[in-house]
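Structure in, sequence out. Go:
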């Protein structure tokens, strides 16, 4: 198998995991980033209030997403980009919760993606004073980037996994997870997760 996966990053409008307002994606094939994409999202109704704290982090305002596709309208685009890849995110628990909870809020079927966490991998592969995305990305040889721009964050996450795989001699995400001692999880629907 080859080192193929899609890195993903969400930005949210507020403290609700369902409040996705931007997504960034980076496709990796044979250990190289071959495509990136990103777009704004109109958060689901009831989760669409923008908190000043979140705006201060990512700079996205309500007027920026007013004409963006809704969660439901953009979900097919997200799935088309990621295909059947394992998703990778830096602090994957957050990003997978956004995917699941936004689908719950809109009644959309949540794709049952397998996923891995570059933060967990980084903690096992690197010895750093901080495991925040910019610090780990720098250690992985990724240049300066616009942190909290979803597409830039996804590309940085992808580079971390590529570098970590090289360092431990892993040929694919499953081998990297195994060598790093972390799990490849699967998104479960809320009713299955609660059972």
């Amino acid at each position: 198998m080859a080192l193929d996966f899609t890195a993903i990053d969400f930005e949210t409008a507020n403290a609700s995991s369902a409040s996705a307002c931007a997504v960034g994606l980076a496709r990796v094939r044979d250990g190289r980033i071959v495509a990136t994409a990103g777009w704004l999202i109109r958060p689901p109704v009831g989760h669409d209030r923008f908190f000043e704290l979140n705006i201060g982090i990512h700079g996205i305002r309500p007027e920026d997403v007013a004409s963006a596709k809704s969660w439901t309208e953009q979900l097919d685009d997200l799935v088309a980009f990621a295909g059947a890849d394992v998703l990778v995110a830096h602090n994957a628990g957050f990003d997978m919760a956004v995917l699941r909870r936004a689908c719950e809020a809109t009644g959309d079927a949540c794709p049952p993606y397998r996923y891995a966490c570059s933060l967990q991998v980084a903690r096992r592969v690197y010895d750093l004073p901080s495991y925040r995305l910019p610090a780990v990305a720098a250690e992985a040889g990724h240049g300066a980037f616009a942190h909290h721009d979803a597409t830039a964050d996804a590309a940085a996450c992808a580079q971390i996994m590529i570098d970590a795989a090289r360092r431990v001699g892993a040929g694919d995400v499953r081998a990297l997870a195994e060598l790093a001692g972390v799990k490849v999880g699967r998104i479960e629907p809320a009713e299955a997760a609660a059972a």
